[in-house]
Amino acid sequence: MNSRPENLVVAAPDDGIPAGELLMDVRNVSLSFGGVKAITDISFNVRKGEIRAIIGPNGAGKTSMLNVINGFYTPQQGTIVFRGQERRSMKPHHAVRQGIARTFQNVALFKGMSTLDNIMAGRSVLMKRNLFWQMFWHGPALREEIEHREKVEEIIDFLEIEHIRRTPVGKLPYGLQKRVELGRALAMEPSLLLLDEPMAGMNLEEKEDMSRFIIDVNRQRGTTIALIEHDMGVVMDLSDRVVVLDYGKKIADDIPDVVKSDKHVIDAYLGVAH
Amino acid sequence: MSTAATAPAAEITLDTFPKYLLHNAARFGNRAAMRHKDYGIWQSWNWNQQLAEIRSLALGLQALGLKRGDRIAVIGANRPRLYWTFTAAQSLGATPVPVYADAVAEEMAYVLDHAGVRFAVVQDQEQVDKIRSFAEKIPLLTDIIYDEPRGLADYDPRGLHAIADLQRKGEALLKADTGLAARWEEEIRRAGGDDISVMLYTSGTTGRSKGVMIRADAAVKAALDTAVFDKLSEDDSVLAYLPLAWVGDHYLNYAQGYVAAFCMCCPESNETVAQDLREIGPTFYFAPPRIFEGLLTSVTIRMEDAGWVKRKLFDHYIKVARKYGEAILEGRPVPLSGRLSYALGKVLLYGPLRNVLGMSNIRVAYTAGEAIGQDLFSFFRSLGINLKQLYGQTEAFLYVTAQKDGEVRADTVGPAAPNVDIRISDTGEVQFRSPGMFTGYFKQEGATEETLTEDGYVKTGDAGFFDTDGQLKIIDRAKDVGKLRSGALFAPKYIENTLKFFPNIKEAVAYGDGRDFAAAFINIDLQAVGNWAERNNIAYASYQELAGHRQVYDMIARNVDETNLRLSKEPIMAGAQIKRFLILHKELDADDGELTRTLKVRRAFVADRYAPLIEALYDGSTEKYVETEMTYEDGRKGTVRATVRIMDAKVHPAAQLVREAAE
């Protein structure tokens, strides 16, 4: 065990879609809660290998959109095509099986468990041995555990969190918890990684660190990323394409430079009376 | 496969480290030479494997154009591949120049330019970025070679290579040419000890850093001497966590590691050193007093938070250890009841505590660089850890003095190390000649001449004297020792160290040369004082606020008073007690140029920067408003504004001369 793998093994699985081709297509999706329309007739797509941002002011419907994508909400209208498969309704665990992983705006880790165990939990979806074998933790189950542990160690190395491997995550500062959460999502080896406000509540230094990790995940592992973010500066630097929502409607969809100078976007952010 | 049995290192004299590499692979081929914690596991290489790694790296470097007489920079954390670069370069007759990885771009540019390096071997993207940011200032440097490829995929590949690629190249060459390996080894055997083995840049406590050239045979000779002195063998192990560019790391881990053939272990990262230490349990250990202080502080804090029973147990057995521990360690007579108490304490406390600190297996531990407090020193020794002091310099290739097992004191640095000649000049300066002595400063003949005496002794620049038992006692930098107007001797460092022995005081800067009295700036220790504040319900938002707090001032005033009392008992120091002091509104920081990279105070710089505060110390005012520029960790600059309070302190009458005056 002397050699270090130079090409990280935990990468996005090869799903047969070449970079730049359509990975996910959101078509005319509408979502309402009772009489409140959260999302109205939104269409956009995500291409393989890109960093796609969904932005918009508070209450624009960004998180609702993310929840639709990963199956937490079922939209009243519209369809989502993911890796060529169309679906109308599904549950979050189906999304996971299909290769969609996410992080949450408010960190949702197992606070009492260590960093290592939290990330290991992310691998559970990929574990093949049944409960019977795992209870004995012997033979094939043990071998499988070792394989998964190796992948988890690569993620720990990648995110530079070796020093908190054994620390219960509840004790960690917020910025590190976010990193652990990213690690857990990466452990699923997703085709599409959804990040819900990865920089929320961070200071400048933590934001810079997180930006670097997001870029590295994308460039080195080839993971396609869709992220929601409030901080405009971060979004414009990070993403390849940006879709802008306001009051549940799409008001712009283009590369950052174009979006930045779009009149509707400026109005939405500066708060013109509607 | 130890065919040559386990011959003590001193019987075989080889004069370069690459020769030792071949020798160690022949006699200890299957023993561990290097370990590195990576991906959560201790990866290891035996001497045969290490030889193969170094050989392919050397041939790769040679293919890139590295040749005899070239200089090659090594920048980064303690990583196997960076240590291998040292030997690989030496095997080709090139000189490795380790550079502090955390040096700011300007400092690093100066060293790389001055050393005239053609290649730089670095750890990761961070260093590649740093070097490329000042590439135009170092026209000689053509290629950067990196260990970790992460983040570098999109970089302009011209002049940029991965160590792994070089090694692959080297292996391909070995395959293509069956005689290559033998020729490489022959080149190593043919080389003499007059190659410059390594060039170490001084940390620049005074002015620009200088490149200290160490000859291969001198380096080997020195390392052999101390390896015999401390009975180091292939059964020992170290955790190599000190900065690569520092003489201490290069000597204690690399040089001694090669001549004694022990295993060098590289930590997983800077933050995991404590954990890694626990896992490895090294037998030889070095740490500056600052680290021992940090360990003691964290143990104390954790005990304060522990339950009642544990606290009582801890207090009781620490008392037992203080009473008998050192005597038992040194083999002095101890009553049977004491031995029994200590044995019980060992089971209940000392053993587990040493284990937590990663010090279970330590046979020899050293500290140096700063004075260490008696309490602190005794604490570790009383736990049964053979902690000793040494005094050294880059120019000596470390050792000038070292304490012998069993003849250890906190306030001295020991007698001359093996084969070292020491004398005290008329001006009180310590001068030495040693086996590892440098051959000169690179491209600075003038400075070399200034440092050497006519009869070939090195001037250390430190003032000191030999105590009655033949141990050297260092007072201060020779040029810093001054006089008050009254004529009393003023040794600022001695005063500062006495202050710093209080856990609340992290740093101190004393002034007084040519003045009416001695006065001091003080930095509080945020960990210790912060913990105290928490326990006493004192709210604070920043270092500045805590430093200016009235109760903190009162507490520090008590420490200053105690310091004066201690000074009054030292006949030659009693005249320069602290009359006035202030607590600085910001921590002294290497990023602001106030400390060196090895965290020593740059006294003159600090005096200049805080001139208005010094003036206020002497003009009798009780407070002073100042604005200071500071650098944040991410490199941005900001300004701190504060009104700093100045307090008077009581002076104690000088004690009667008890022992004969030292002078």
From TrEMBL, chain A:
<keyword id="KW-0067">ATP-binding</keyword>
<dbReference type="Pfam" id="PF12399">
    <property type="entry name" value="BCA_ABC_TP_C"/>
</dbReference>
<dbReference type="GO" id="GO:0005524">
    <property type="term" value="F:ATP binding"/>
</dbReference>
<dbReference type="InterPro" id="IPR003439">
    <property type="entry name" value="ABC_transporter-like_ATP-bd"/>
</dbReference>
<dbReference type="InterPro" id="IPR003593">
    <property type="entry name" value="AAA+_ATPase"/>
</dbReference>
<protein>
    <submittedName>
        <fullName>ABC transporter ATP-binding protein</fullName>
    </submittedName>
</protein>
<dbReference type="Pfam" id="PF00005">
    <property type="entry name" value="ABC_tran"/>
</dbReference>
<feature type="domain" description="ABC transporter">
    <location>
        <begin position="24"/>
        <end position="272"/>
    </location>
</feature>
<keyword id="KW-0547">Nucleotide-binding</keyword>
<dbReference type="GO" id="GO:0016887">
    <property type="term" value="F:ATP hydrolysis activity"/>
</dbReference>
<dbReference type="InterPro" id="IPR051120">
    <property type="entry name" value="ABC_AA/LPS_Transport"/>
</dbReference>
<dbReference type="GO" id="GO:0005886">
    <property type="term" value="C:plasma membrane"/>
</dbReference>
<dbReference type="InterPro" id="IPR027417">
    <property type="entry name" value="P-loop_NTPase"/>
</dbReference>
<dbReference type="InterPro" id="IPR032823">
    <property type="entry name" value="BCA_ABC_TP_C"/>
</dbReference>
<keyword id="KW-0813">Transport</keyword>
TrEMBL record, chain B:
<keyword id="KW-0067">ATP-binding</keyword>
<dbReference type="GO" id="GO:0016020">
    <property type="term" value="C:membrane"/>
</dbReference>
<feature type="domain" description="AMP-dependent synthetase/ligase">
    <location>
        <begin position="23"/>
        <end position="442"/>
    </location>
</feature>
<protein>
    <submittedName>
        <fullName>Long-chain fatty acid--CoA ligase</fullName>
    </submittedName>
</protein>
<keyword id="KW-0547">Nucleotide-binding</keyword>
<dbReference type="Pfam" id="PF23562">
    <property type="entry name" value="AMP-binding_C_3"/>
</dbReference>
<dbReference type="GO" id="GO:0004467">
    <property type="term" value="F:long-chain fatty acid-CoA ligase activity"/>
</dbReference>
<dbReference type="InterPro" id="IPR042099">
    <property type="entry name" value="ANL_N_sf"/>
</dbReference>
<dbReference type="InterPro" id="IPR020845">
    <property type="entry name" value="AMP-binding_CS"/>
</dbReference>
<keyword id="KW-0436">Ligase</keyword>
<dbReference type="InterPro" id="IPR000873">
    <property type="entry name" value="AMP-dep_synth/lig_dom"/>
</dbReference>
<dbReference type="GO" id="GO:0005524">
    <property type="term" value="F:ATP binding"/>
</dbReference>
<dbReference type="Pfam" id="PF00501">
    <property type="entry name" value="AMP-binding"/>
</dbReference>
